[in-house]
Amino acid sequence: RSLPSSAPPRLPFSRVTEADLTFFRQLLPGRAITDPDVLESSNVDWLKSVRGSSEVLLRPRTTEEVSKILRYCNERNLAVSPQGGNTGLVGGSVPVFDEIILSTTLMNQVLAFDGVSGILTCQAGCVLESLSQYLEERDFVMPLDLGAKGSCHIGGNVATNAGGLRLLRYGSLRGTVLGLEVVLADGQVLNCLATLRKDNTGYDLKQLFIGSEGTLGVITAVSILCPRKPNAVNVAFLGCASFQNLLETFQCCRGMLGEILSAFEFLDASCMALLEKHLKLTNPITECPFYIVIETAGSNAKHDEEKLHNFLEEVMSKSFVTDGTVATEDVKVKALWSLRERVTEALTHDGFTYKYDISLPVEKIYQLVTDMREHLGDRAKNVVGYGHVGDGNLHLNITSPTRDPALLAAIEPYVYEWTEGVRGSVSAEHGLGLKKRNYIYYSKPPEAVALMGSIKAMLDPRGILNPYKTLPDDLSLR
Ligand code: FAD
Ligand code: MLT
Ligand code: ZN
User: Fold this and answer.
1) CA of 182 to the centre of ligand 2 (A)
2) Where would you tag: which of 80, 276, 336, 383 has the fewest CB atoms within 10 A of its CB?
3) What ranges make up the beta strands (E) of 273-379?
4) Ligand approaching nearest to the C-alpha of 145
5) CB of 395 shorter than 6 A to ligand 2
6) Whole-angstrom Cα distance, residue 420 to residue 437?
7) What is the pLDDT of residues 127-177, one digit of tens each?
């Protein structure tokens, strides 16, 4: 069960030759990069925990260019690692060895926007925050939001099926993505870029590529259904004395804020300590074991404020919440959100971070943190919990002054066995990438994993697309 997650052996792909470079330079003048200084940042992941040694970075602008690249690489048996904003957290976005990096950075054009339906069609390399700005000017918003918005690409979001901070309200990308254009491993362009809400003509092939982490095809364009921009946004930052109180607040919140609730997030006191220590952020309320960020988004400011007020009165009178503050102005809203969004960044300053992204029944999400703390005792520097309560998604992070194999051996497989024991998922939203690929069996039956292997073999028979990622070694190294 607990196969090692360390680097697998290099598969027998061809190595890039001068003739290959000549082909790429002709196809992409000035955009076939071999400068080691430029390649350095594309070879390393956001967490600086995985480092490849690719010597070529390709920056296509069009689908046709992506198609020509893949057709060539498939014929030449050259492995390719697709890369968006390189903010992925499971080592999926960087090469493991010398795979060619195919970056969507220059594929950043909005192709169409329909202001009646709210359907946006754009190239895969559009940065999430730029799309949000584009839509806000037109009174719409993106249906997803995450801390990495300033760098991540919509194609990367779709490829990881990113969840983020608004999933509770607008649902997963599996519902909001209406169409995809994908280039298959052999260069064939699959144009499923529909802009229809309903389309039951055969199998929904786009779903195969959502969450496939670059292993089945390169996403080149996305059409996505966007909600109207809410007229009124309120953010409440609240403190609770116990996780039980936090759950009671969540239940009350769903009942009293229902249709205007757009996020229910949490962080524990250890996260707050890291925000204060490493990022010099200030806790706006009195110290508590747990903090909640609640966002409401609605169409009537007066109505929403009244609802929020009634809710706050209820949770304070019942002592579910011990202290809190509310913001409506943009600057304060952003400041409160940064206390939740910047936990990931604060952790990077605390030492080496072991990251776990677990789906659990909501009432169990903090039990894993408590049990892990007890299990590790003083072997870890910090054991912290935060995440998306509304989605039953815990982010359990454990820090250590340096990479520590003994600590890792104490964490794994304990964390995966614990998760399996409550029928949770070992990857709620980040995917499996390189780091988690071998733990898939804790959450999926062998028959399902074998079928995934067959799909991979059908779509990418030579295995050139993002090798060593997502599928476990017992399938992908056969
Ligand atoms: P990359 O990191 O470049 O790539 C991710 C994976 O997708 C790789 O396997 C890559 O090969 C593949 N890929 C990229 N582009 C394409 C493409 N066009 N076609 C095919 N495959 C492709 N995730 C969440 O789910 N929720 C969060 O709240 C969240 N918050 C985050 C906060 C921070 C501060 C950070 C650093 C990360 C966060 N993430 C979160 C992780 C998340 O997976 C990414 O931020 C995002 O979805 C990845 O987009 P990217 O463009 O950076 O993709
Ligand atoms: C988050 O919700 O903050 C992200 O998924 C990133 C993380 O897990 O650190
Ligand atoms: Zn998250």
Assistant:
1) 27
2) 276
3) 290-298, 323-327, 352-359
4) 1
5) yes
6) 16
7) 999 999 999 999 999 999 999 999 999 999 999 999 999 999 999 999 999
